[in-house]
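Reminder to self: C-alpha cells first, then the designed residues, so the page reads top to bottom the way the pipeline ran.
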C-alpha cells in the first residue's frame, strides 16, 4: 500500500480569548495539518503550534511538501518505523527537536488514520486494543486573576470535571499562592488540583519554595517546575519535596525518556503524542516509562480534533498511562477556538454527559474527517 502523496498545510485559527500559560498569552493556534494518500484512502495528521514554536508552521509545512514528501512517496504506508526514521534523517539537522517531533507527528498520525481506514478498524485496535472505554479528563484554568480562575473552576465542575490544573510560575509566588487559595476554597476538598509551571520558576530553590507552599493546598502533583534542560535541578527538587513532579517540556524525544528515567529526576511522565513525535514514538516512550516504573499521563497542547482523537486512542490503549488525562489532549476542544478544521468535535457538553469523561472513538482510523472549507479558511498561504 504505497504512499501516493503527502500534502502539508499550515493553519492559523484565532481565539476568542487569549490563552495564558506561564510565559505568554496566545491569541491563535498555529498548526500543520498533513494528509497522506495511498490506494484510494486518505489519512489526516496534525502537528501543534508549540511543537513548531521555534520554526514557523508555514516553514515546516513547506519542508514537509518538498524534502520529506520526496523521500516518503512510494514507501509502504504500513512501514511506520522506517517512515519515522526517514523523517528524522531529513529534518533533525535543520529543525529543533520540538519541530522534528512535529514533522514526525503530522505524518505519523495520518498513517495510523490511513491504516485504520484501510482495515476498517479504529486506531486503538492497531495500537494493541483498549484497556478502558472512556478517559477521565482534567481542565486547565487559564492564568488570570484569582477571582476569574475561581469562577472558571466552578463552571468546569458543573460540566463534571473532578480534576483542575492551575497554571503557575509566571507572576511570582504571592500571585501563585492567591490563585491556589481562591481556587481551593471555591472547589472544596473533593476536587483534585494539579499545578503546571511550564518551566516558569527561575531555579530549583524557587521551585522548592513554591511546591512547599502548594502542599498546604493538597495538590496532586506539580508539572515542569523549571526549564527543560536542568536535570540536576529537577533531581534536587524531587529529593526535596513530597509532592510528585511531572516531566512535560523535558520529555520530547525517546532519548529524553531514557535520560529522565535513569536520572531519577521526575516521578511522572506527561506524554503528548504531538510533542513526542506521534503515536509510534509515544508508544516507545510509554514502554521506557513502564520499564522504569514511572506512571504516565496524557496531555496535549491546544489542538485541533485530529490530535485530540489520536490522544484518546493512545490514552485508552496503554496500561502505563494511568495517571490522568489533560483537557488539552484527550479532552474537548477549547471553547475559545474560533473554528475547527474537522467535521465533528467533542464538546464540554459531551464531557458533562459522561460525568467528566471522554469516550474513545470506534470509527475507522482516528475517527476524524477534515472540513475542506474550514481548511481553506484557516490555511496560511505565506
Ligand atoms: Mg504541561
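Designed residues (382 positions):
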Amino acid at each position: 500500500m504505497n504512499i501516493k502523496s503527502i500534502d502539508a498545510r499550515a493553519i492559523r485559527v484565532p481565539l476568542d480569548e487569549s490563552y495564558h500559560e506561564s510565559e505568554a498569552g496566545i491569541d491563535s493556534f498555529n498548526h500543520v495539518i498533513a494528509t497522506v494518500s495511498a490506494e484510494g484512502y486518505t489519512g489526516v495528521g496534525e502537528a501543534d503550534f508549540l511543537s513548531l514554536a521555534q520554526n514557523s508552521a508555514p516553514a515546516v509545512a513547506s519542508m514537509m511538501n518538498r524534502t520529506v514528501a520526496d523521500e516518503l512517496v512510494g514507501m509502504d504506508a504500513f512501514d511506520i518505523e522506517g517512515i519515522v526514521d526517514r523523517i528524522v534523517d531529513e529534518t533533525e539537522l535543520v529543525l529543533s527537536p520540538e519541530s522534528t517531533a512535529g514533522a514526525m507527528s503530522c505524518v505519523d498520525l495520518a498513517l495510523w488514520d490511513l491504516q485504520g481506514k484501510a482495515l476498517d478498524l479504529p486506531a486503538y485496535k492497531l495500537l494493541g486494543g483498549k484497556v478502558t472505554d472512556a478517559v477521565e479528563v482534567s481542565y486547565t484554568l487559564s492564568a488570570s486573576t484569582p477571582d476569574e480562575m475561581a469562577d472558571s473552576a466552578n463552571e468546569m465542575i458543573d460540566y463534571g470535571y473532578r480534576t483542575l490544573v492551575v497554571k503557575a510560575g509566571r507572576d511570582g509566588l504571592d500571585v501563585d499562592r492567591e490563585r491556589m487559595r481562591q481556587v481551593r476554597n471555591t472547589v472544596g476538598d473533593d476536587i483534585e488540583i494539579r499545578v503546571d509551571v511550564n518551566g516558569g520558576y527561575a531555579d530549583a530553590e524557587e521551585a522548592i519554595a513554591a511546591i512547599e507552599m502548594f502542599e498546604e493546598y493538597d495538590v496532586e502533583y506539580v508539572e515542569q517546575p523549571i526549564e527543560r534542560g536542568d536535570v540536576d535541578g529537577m533531581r534536587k527538587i524531587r529529593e526535596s519535596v513530597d509532592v510528585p513532579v511531572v516531566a512535560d517540556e523535558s520529555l520530547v524525544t525517546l532519548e529524553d525518556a531514557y535520560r529522565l528515567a535513569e536520572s531519577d529526576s521526575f516521578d511522572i511522565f506527561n506524554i503528548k503524542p504531538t510533542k513526542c513525535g506521534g503515536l509510534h514514538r509515544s508508544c516507545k516512550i510509554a514502554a521506557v516509562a513502564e520499564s522504569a516504573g514511572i506512571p504516565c499521563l496524557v496531555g496535549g497542547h491546544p489542538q485541533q480534533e485530529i490530535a485530540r482523537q489520536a490522544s484518546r486512542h493512545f490514552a485508552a490503549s496503554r496500561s502505563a498511562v494511568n495517571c490522568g488525562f489533560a483537557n488539552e489532549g484527550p479532552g474537548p476542544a477549547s471553547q475559545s477556538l474560533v473554528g475547527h478544521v474537522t467535521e465533528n468535535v467533542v464538546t464540554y457538553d459531551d464531557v458533562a454527559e459522561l460525568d467528566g469523561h471522554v469516550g474513545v472513538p470506534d470509527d475507522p482510523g482516528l475517527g476524524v474527517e477534515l472540513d475542506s472549507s474550514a481548511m481553506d479558511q484557516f490555511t496560511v498561504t505565506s
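The pocket of magnesium ion is lined by residues 196, 198, 223-224, 248, 270, 299 (CB under 6 Å).
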